[in-house]
Amino acid sequence: MIKSTVKGRRVLVLSTAIAITMTQLQAQTIPTDQTLPLVKYVKPIIGTERMGHTFPGATVPFGAVQLSPETDTIPYSVDGKYVPDVYKYCAGYQYDDATIVGFAHTHFNGTGHSDLGDFLIMPTVGKLQLNPGTAADPASGFRSRFSHTTEQAAANYYKVDLEDYHIKAELTTTTRVGMHKYTFPATDSAHIILDMMYNLYNYPGKDVWTYLRIINDSTVVGYRQTNGWAKNRTEYFAMQFSKPFKSYGYKNYSTTEPYIGFWRRFDMRKNFPLIQGHDIRAYFDFDAKAGESIEIKMALSPVSYQGALDNMQEEARGWDFNQIKNAGQLAWEKELEKVKIETLNDSDKVNFYTAMYHSFINPTIYMDVDGNYKGLDQQIHNANDSHFTNYTTFSLWDTHRALHPLFTLLQPKRAGDMVESMLKHFDQSIIHMLPVWSTYANEGWCMTGYHAVSVIADAIAKNINGFDQQKALQAVITTATNPLYDNIPAYEKYGYIPDSLSGTSVSTTLEYAYDDWCIAQMAKKLGNDSIYEQFSKRAMNYKNVYDPSIGYMRPKDKNGVFRKNFDPLETSGEGFIEGNAWNYTLYVPHDPKGLIQLTGGDKAFIKRLDALFTTYLPDKYFEHTEDITRDGLIGNYVHGNEPSHHIAYLYNWTSEPWKTQSTVRMILKSQYHNGPDGLGGNDDTGQMSAWYIFSALGFYPVAPGSDLYNLGSPLVKSATIQLENGKTFAIKVVGQSEQNVYVSKVELDGKTLSDKTISQSDITSGGNLTFYMSNKHKK
Amino acid sequence: MIKSTVKGRRVLVLSTAIAITMTQLQAQTIPTDQTLPLVKYVKPIIGTERMGHTFPGATVPFGAVQLSPETDTIPYSVDGKYVPDVYKYCAGYQYDDATIVGFAHTHFNGTGHSDLGDFLIMPTVGKLQLNPGTAADPASGFRSRFSHTTEQAAANYYKVDLEDYHIKAELTTTTRVGMHKYTFPATDSAHIILDMMYNLYNYPGKDVWTYLRIINDSTVVGYRQTNGWAKNRTEYFAMQFSKPFKSYGYKNYSTTEPYIGFWRRFDMRKNFPLIQGHDIRAYFDFDAKAGESIEIKMALSPVSYQGALDNMQEEARGWDFNQIKNAGQLAWEKELEKVKIETLNDSDKVNFYTAMYHSFINPTIYMDVDGNYKGLDQQIHNANDSHFTNYTTFSLWDTHRALHPLFTLLQPKRAGDMVESMLKHFDQSIIHMLPVWSTYANEGWCMTGYHAVSVIADAIAKNINGFDQQKALQAVITTATNPLYDNIPAYEKYGYIPDSLSGTSVSTTLEYAYDDWCIAQMAKKLGNDSIYEQFSKRAMNYKNVYDPSIGYMRPKDKNGVFRKNFDPLETSGEGFIEGNAWNYTLYVPHDPKGLIQLTGGDKAFIKRLDALFTTYLPDKYFEHTEDITRDGLIGNYVHGNEPSHHIAYLYNWTSEPWKTQSTVRMILKSQYHNGPDGLGGNDDTGQMSAWYIFSALGFYPVAPGSDLYNLGSPLVKSATIQLENGKTFAIKVVGQSEQNVYVSKVELDGKTLSDKTISQSDITSGGNLTFYMSNKHKK
């Protein structure tokens, strides 16, 4: 733990928060350029085109501030209100767009639903315009055209020229502070617009309340409350300019605020230091000499604007943009150094380290430097009491598969804190549920299952510390037996969810069965036999929705009759969420052996898998399912969405395990590229990237909740994993080449592995793993 | 101070808060009926008809909860939205109405603008209706008809039968908790409606956000944020039922909340324990046997729902309605005992003790039992650090005249706390201003002047403790020289506010001049000569707006030319706020002698005063000025509104002081009655009532900021003032009768007074004041 002083008070900054404090900055040798050995391979632009939904802007690892440009985001309607685009602009940026409306401080990385986009800042020159204008006619508002030729997106640094204003914009961050540097032409009418109406996932009425308090000629504090995907979210801020503004003002776009105070006593419209209302755009005016830079620091807090001021004071006291940038890049370098790889070419390194980068963006730190955070119960709590760092943004349907297992390996301290964050969420939940899709002190109930139990069981299987294991067991049991949640009583009664009760009865049954297996594993390790037995039995419920007459999982009604008129290729409306029966029939990660038996044995299973990767899926089967696109398809296998992520590894349970090896290598090569369109689907807060990292290293967690990884075919030539416990785990790949995708032998510390697995402790106790590669598979 | 334990924590309950704790309850002998000797004279119904704007419901002295019925309040528009009635329903109740829509927990007493009305509760029986319905057709909604024959309104107790449902409703309170008792007929469909959309001063968009959390089968917590007269106000609550509800639900009337969570995972519409949105009405269902009572406790907090729970735990642990009621009535009795009077008849006692009651309602306590409160800066502060009780609702344009001076006499500890509350407001004000019209952590800038300085100067003149005097001096100077506020720079430059800059240039100039005199007095006492001189000079600015050619104060432009086409009878648009030149010309409370000289000397002044009280003012001169009505007029003198309240006492500076005596007695008799229409104008949070108390006792603070009271003609036969310092001050009136309105002699401790004044210290040092009455005036 790092103890430091904020405004005369002793505060505790937990080491896991990786707060970049000035003290730390000064104690380290900060490189002065952007050529750090591994950071240079990070290309945040990857995934920003079409489906990746990543953002190119600046952030430190797991930063609370993720500061990034917003492009055409929002078609602007005639009455001056934004129109939402829920899906396309999840990260605020689309590479093919031509304009930037400004730079906002909060983003999801790679999600399939949008929110956030807090506190849009846009510098302009000339006549003040408070409307963003339209992409078709950028001059109609404050937005500006830009070009990728002047754009630079690196870890913790983003730069672009705003062509309409001849302004160079640069961004960097600390954990809780965004720093802007705008270099102006000579002008007596420079403006900084603070658009508090800007939102990702915007619509009339989303802005619940906005409050700005101008505390001196260069400092503004306040907050905004929004009713979005996070239904009841308040983000606080403190904003500081490097130079006093000469005047300021705002416009309130709301039409439902009859009482505006008495303007005969004050003119509150200009230079009045308290601004509040439903829909506010503020502006600050400056003079600028040619080439003069105006810098802005924007600190965030989940708790109060005083908290934001304290965060700024602690993390970013001065005005040294490069120092902040370099400190953040050094923090990234340290994270990337946890896996040092050699590859056949630099392109693979770019994919790998960008995947590392994208894996370490969400969940984000959600607490002030003094440990205060807002809980799901809308009350203020302090994390220091429980000695953890509070995280938010858990996209668990996606991330329980590989991202959280990756954290158990590369971020064990954070992994423990994330479990503790989930247990606090459970404590604060009015219905006593672990998170499903939670963000910023809100639960959105997005997607299905209760996959927090997978994350927790996996952490326990892998001896992650930092939370109370028995309490965790109670929390997963309570969650999995919640009578209010998504047909659990029916699931308990019938052993599956009847078709008539749910549009996703089959996939939810399958997910519950896997989650139940996780609970069983956890109970076993913690010595609770009756829970182990109860949930082991529930874990077999997947069998109840399998229809042997057609060979697929299939919706079934209360009386046990399968649904008529069923199409196993269709991804929507057939009892599954975001997927078809082809893919979901393979979703039994915890019991591949049982699944093979159920579906006709080894040969039939191999044939099924082969067909999955080769059967062409016509557009009509997925064009209405947003998360599935042609980009992310390989045959009928969907790599661009999560439910299939384990499938390539299932060949390992058959008599043709080499097909896991060739298929994994094929996916690594076809679904990940260095370009803006380099991701075949939503990154989903790092799940797509985590799949890449594991698979490139040669192993993958098919069933989190077990401590075993399944072996595939490594992409790297070698890798060294630096563990938090001080040990290292080295991966050597003998005979690696583009053609040599088959593994003829694997040795752990010189002993040939007879199984297709290694365990977490094999890795964490340090050692050497050697793959011997060949262009031919073993028999 | 009383120390007590809340949930295992030691908390400090300041004695001034008069929190009715269970500990106190148990330690006292609680009378079991409502016949306490003085409480029985309190008739909260006085002022509830037409213009008084008082409420008849239950409250303890200065209670944070003021729980009262809401009558026809709201014409209901076709689209399901309320239409605001800003003025008529300031207190939520009008005596002439025929229906009750429910019972709400916060009210202003006697104001001229509405807000509050938090958390309307309405019990019903039969088919659930979530709309209030219309007064014309009560059956169209949940409202009920009622009759005054079943109504009882006493100090801290209100009872009425809800005829449409055969429910008896009873209300009582502690400082922070409202208690409801509803006695039902036999039914299997009793409902308690919790209407979170109900507001006083309502309009679409006023409800910013509503949050309900059902924490068990009989407890609900939450909050509501509103954008009303207080622009950014959040009130938190904790609500407990004496009996578990059998089911519950809500309706969200908002049309701008696209994301509602996923109903396929939960049905959130019924029996789901988290309810939130813009516009919420919730309901709770019960069975009831004939004559069964369901009780409800509703605790409020300015800080958090946990604060509300703690408040409930501290103040109202059990379910003994009578104990709570009796404890509150005992608290009232103790307040009323501070002035024991004998009168010619009971009617005067009713007026007097009801005036005492109405004077001790606002300002209200605005902090939790643990000292936490929300500041004007929207941050949470703790009052224990500064050892004060935080108060809110300062209607200072009204109350600086007599209500706050009354507090210096009868509530000196509270008076100090109120000044400290104002100084905290100053600290928290972004523009460094003392309160103008502040309420619930908001400043509304209503009305004119900076009259907090009058209250503070008066407190210093009268040796009130509990705040830092030098800091107070800085605060009043900063306030009075604020370059942003209402034309202060022009006032400083010209010595008056030019007509072109303000619609109320003359009255504001006059008010500033008086306030400046207050600052001068305060500076003098605190030894700051230069400030004394500076503000003594400013205090003479009243002379700058007097036009000797017509004999009235009159708007004047920058070049010194008086406005043409000026009508001194007109109350609107002639340079004055809520008053005409006739009344405002007499508004120089700090320098009557100078005013007499300015306006032509003694005889002319007497003639002017005589004319004021006798000149008939036709309707056309005031019918567009809400706060002035025929009820409150005596000739052209307006007792129903504040600017004239000192005028009757001005005869004391002339050669015919007996006219003060007869006029005061005439006003006491004509403007105050025992009936619902017993107040001739808005009580204005107690100012009308405080005028009555002082005048009935025989003296009045013409110029707060001085420690002198001006003598009038007492209404009482005798009075004993029990002072907080333990001393008593006795008033005897020899020869009192309805006819003997003239004072032939006054003795203080046996010595005849040569002057027409007594000082605060004359009173607070204890002693005897004897008036000798006659039916003829002297000379």
TrEMBL record, chains A, B:
Residues 41-301 form the Glycosyl hydrolase family 92 N-terminal domain. The keyword Aminoacyl-tRNA synthetase does not apply. Keywords: Calcium, Signal. It comes from the Bacteria. One of its GO terms (molecular function) is peptide-N4-(N-acetyl-beta-glucosaminyl)asparagine amidase activity. This is Alpha-1,2-mannosidase, putative. Transmembrane segments: none annotated. Residues 308-774 form the Glycosyl hydrolase family domain. InterPro entries: 6-hairpin_glycosidase_sf (IPR008928), GH-type_carb-bd (IPR014718), GH92_a_mannosidase_put (IPR005887), GH92_N (IPR041371), Glyco_hydro_92 (IPR012939), PNGase (IPR050883). GO terms for biological process: carbohydrate metabolic process; glycoprotein catabolic process. Monomer. Coiled coil: none annotated. GO terms for cellular component: cytosol. Its cofactor is Ca(2+). Residues 1-27 form the signal peptide.
